[in-house]
Design a protein that fits this description.
The chain is an alpha+beta fold. The chain has one domain: Nucleoside Triphosphate Pyrophosphohydrolase, CATH 3.90.79.10. Helix content is 16%, strand content 43%. The protein has 2 helices and 7 strands, in the order ββββαβββα. The chain has helices at 45-57, 120-126, and strands spanning 4-13, 16-22, 32-33, 36-38, 60-73, 77-88, 96-103. Strand 5 (60-73) and strand 6 form a beta hairpin. The longest helix has 13 residues, at 45-57. The mean pLDDT is 96. Its cofactor is Mg(2+).
């Protein structure tokens, strides 16, 4: 069986990155992440990320280059991050407790979901940190 691909979007504005605070499941609630979600069968990763960010944040994005390497989660999931550019819509945390813009200096101090920590060095570079 193929691994479930989960896509995440790194939305950078100037020298800040948008991060989202999880509402669920209980073991991840309160932790911060790059927003995104699961790719459904037959869907392109970029299309899934556009759909997920629209559903979760109410924004339209254009998906750019991959960020960092694949991050395996357990035995059946692979997490992939992409840089995204905001093209329309107003940010709203439809599926999260909160949204926040953070600088490179703040990245390490956030309580991240464990899988997303793999991208912190790359994110810091992108933010000029």
């Amino acid at each position: 069986m193929a691994a479930q691909i989960v896509v995440a979007g790194a939305l950078i504005s100037g020298a800040t990155l948008l991060v989202a605070q999880r509402q669920r499941p209980p073991d991840l609630a309160g932790l911060w992440e790059l927003p995104g979600g699961k790719v459904v069968p037959g869907e392109l990763e970029a299309d899934a990320l556009v759909r997920e960010l629209n559903e979760e944040l109410g924004v339209d994005v254009v998906v750019g280059e991959r960020l960092g390497a694949d991050v395996p989660i357990g035995e059946s999931m692979i997490l992939r991050a992409y840089l995204v550019t905001h093209t329309g819509g107003a940010l709203h945390p439809h599926d999260h407790r909160a949204l926040r813009w953070v600088s490179a200096a703040e990245l390490e101090s956030l309580a991240w979901v464990p899988a997303d920590r793999a991208w912190l060095p790359e994110l810091a570079k992108r933010l000029g940190g």
